[in-house]
Amino acid sequence: MSFRTYRPEQPENAPFPMALQNQLEALEQQLSQLLTAMNSMQAENERLRHQQQSLMDECVRLQQKNAAASEQIESILERLRQQAAQQEEDGS
Question: How far apart are CA 14 and CA 31, in angstroms?
């Protein structure tokens, strides 16, 4: 963003014209620095939002994978219980 510096015509006997001009230039520089910092923070915020979304997506994927693994383990345990019960019946 570019700013045009306002430099009004001032009579030479105007009180503190140079001091006022210096203040305006200092404010313009501060504003420019603030805008640069704001743009940088906005870009970082966007990057962090994307990173957060990726991590949340990965968390959901891992939870689903964990649930599927738990189901498989339960299924294996149930088959083992059934086999043990069958062997007891056959052995008796």
Answer: 26
Query: Over the chain, what HEC string results?
Result: CCCCCCCCCCCCCCCCHHHHHHHHHHHHHHHHHHHHHHHHHHHHHHHHHHHHHHHHHHHHHHHHHHHHHHHHHHHHHHHHHHHHHHHHHHHC
User: Can you read off the two tokens belonging to residue 67?
Assistant: 């649930």
Q: What digits encode the pLDDT tens for the residues 34-81? A: 999 999 999 999 999 999 999 999 999 999 999 999 999 999 999 999
Q: What are 25-37's pLDDT values in tens digits? A: 999 999 999 999 9
**Residue that is written with structure tokens 């009180």 in the block:** 15
pTM over 0.90: no
